Request: fold
Amino acid sequence: MRIATRLFLATLAASASFAAAAPATAQSDDRWRDRYEHRDHDDDDDRWQHRRDRYDDRYDARRYDHGRVRAIARQIEELERRVERTDRRDRISEREAQALRRSVYNLRRQFNDYARGGLSQREVYILQDRIQQLRQRLSYERWDRDGRR
Reply:
C-alpha cells in the first residue's frame, strides 16, 4: 500500500470511531442531575432544614429587640467620638486617625445592614467583637509611641 492510502485509511478509521462516540456523550444521565438539586430545593423538603437552622437565624423569632440595636448604635457613636477626641488632642497621627475613622465607618455600614430586620445573636456577636477590636486598636495607637504623630 502506498503512503497516501495508509494515511487515508487511518484518518477514516479515526473519524469513524469519533463519530460513533459522539452520540454516546450527548446523552443525558439522570443520576448526575440529582447531585445539584439542592440549589433549587423546595421549602417542603426537610433535607436542608438543618442548614437554615444552623447557619442562618435571620428569620428566627428570637431576634433581639430595638433596645439592643440602640445600645450597639450608642457604642459605635461613642467609638466615633473617642477617635475624634484622640485625634484632636494629637495623641494619634492623621494617618492612624484616618484608618480608624474608615474602620468605624465600615462598622457603621455593617451595623446598618444587620439592623434592618433586627439583630440575631450571631450578628450581635460579630458587631460586639468588631467594636472591641476597634477599641483595642485605638488604645494601641494612643500608646504605641512610634513617633508618627
In short: Helices lie at 3-26, 30-33, 49-55, 66-88, 94-115, 121-143.
